[in-house]
Amino acid sequence: MLDKTIMVFAIVAGVVLFVLLGLLIIVRIRRQRPLPMDELEGHDFEYYCADLLREHGFLDVEVTKGSGDFGADILAEKDGVSYAIQCKCYDKPIGVKAVQEVYAGRDYYDCMIGVVMTNQYFTAPAVELARKLKIMLWDRGYIDSM
Q1: Nearest Cα to 82, choosing from 107, 111, 54?
Q2: Prediction pTM value
């Protein structure tokens, strides 16, 4: 009787492990699939992000000038809250520099919220700095869900 119980438990555990492994593979493939935004150049990506923001209820969405933007590529407002947004369209994880840029841009433009918006994911140091500086991080998954 005990042998049958152990055997059933082993089979169930194997099936659960197989299903979890399959889900992990699906998630990794989905993360790595190319998205239309991956093909954009820097300034085109900024306009792409601006359009997404408008579609999601942001008002007064303005793409700042290409160079000398003081750390914010887009200025926007939603529900009375002002946002300074730094856009990064890269082929590798986003580091602390982007967080530092939008931190400065948020203050320069007197905005309430600073955001880094990217087609990639963030490095652990970038996440740590953003948490400390109260900067929002909108990564590939977040943008894709928009």
Answers
A1: 111
A2: 0.73
